[in-house]
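Q: I'm writing a short explainer about TPR repeat-containing protein for a general audience and would like to include a description of its predicted shape. Could you first generate the structure from this sequence?
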Amino acid sequence: MKKLYAALAVLAGVIVVISHPLSLADNGSVDINSINAIAKAVTVYIRPSSGATFGTGVIINRSADLYTVLTVKHVAALNDDYTIRTEIDKTTHKAIYKSDLYDVPGFDLAILQFKSSNEYQLAKLSPNELGNLNTVFIAGYPKSFNPDGSNPVYTIVQGTVNTILPSSQSRDGYQVGYQAPGIGGMSGGPVFNNRAQLVALHGLEKPPFLLGIPLPQTWTVSLVSQLESQAQAYRQQLASRPTPTPTPVAVATPRPTPTPVASPTPKPTPKPSPTPVAVTTPRPTPTPVASPTPKPTPKPSPTPIVTPTPRPTPTPVVVAAAPKLPELLSRVDLFRPSTIQVTAPVLQQECKEIAFGGTRVKNCQYVYSNPGSVRAAQLSDYEQLLQQGNAQANQNRVEQAIADYTQAINKKPDYAYAYFNRGLLLSRDGQVDQGLADLSKAENLFQSQELSLELARVRDVIRVIKQSQRVS
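A: Of course. Here's the predicted structure. Afterward I'll give you a sentence or two in plain language.
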């Protein structure tokens, strides 16, 4: 058995931090170079067009030219256009994504998709166990090398697993606790075991631990398949929607050109009368001395006529009006009932004694006592009403949609999603006061139910409405 002791290695321009001994044995483990090569081939950089945040993802599936990337939900939580940069060839792709459509209810997981004719490798999942997790490798783009997100630096670091949280104590799917140096900002980064298999997705920092979501193979494949089917159904629904009439852009009317005022013709200046010459009787004088002939007095020049220069006609400035509130709110998605029901996998530690160097030592493995499940959800009556209201809203049947949301609220008075959708639709329809009341109710419910992403969205909508009211 070979041991690679603590060192800082630079492999092909990639920083690899080795902070603990790494065993390279004939037990399925692979060397650090191979793990890095596999990680680099499947790791991607994710960033919204606004540049407000960034994160990491891993290529998990392919169907023809459509690739699926798995990441954490908080990396792709903005209602924005995202790009995906594949690390292996530094190519940037436009992401296909819809917030609250491509994510997993109850888990900090989401998928994004992109189209490409290039051949990209897929991450290999661990079949039914995490294996010996004394050593894990986390790939991604740390914030320390890329503070503003404009210059991502791919990094892979080695860490050590310290704990497995019981599912009863974990939140949003985070169960695997580990320690590794300098990975702040690497949310969504793939976590590999020493066989170069994807075993978890990194996402949280809870000192002294970093936390990841375990990804058993069957559970993950089923989850991604359900999300892909849901996304495909949504794209087909979008394609069948009636094309909305574009809102005309208001253009400022140019000021009329002022009619020039005719200036009065100035009267000509009269010529001055010649000065009379006084004649005197000449005295008898000696012989006159010839004097130079006096130059004739020049006539005064006539006063020039000054015509006022007309002012230039101002060029009319055409300014596009700022988007109206209904147009702004039309860009906000309605909440949908989830069509996926997910049960978390449950990890446990199994230990046995093995012979090692003439003595017996404890060897521990992490296995899934319950691999979890993913299945189509059975919608409740109030969820069906929310879904029905969304269908009415997509057809611009506002009154019918509001009636459906109201029925959903009557059946479940703390149903925050129905309050949000009804408030959004009322505000789009010009009933802003009633809409704000519903949105405020949704805000309180999301906060009490600890739904942070939903809370952030409703607060954004309330802020946009209040700003619009101040401007008007």
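A: For your explainer, you could say: The domain at 2-221 is CATH 2.40.10.120 (Thrombin, subunit H).
Q: Perfect, that's easy to follow.
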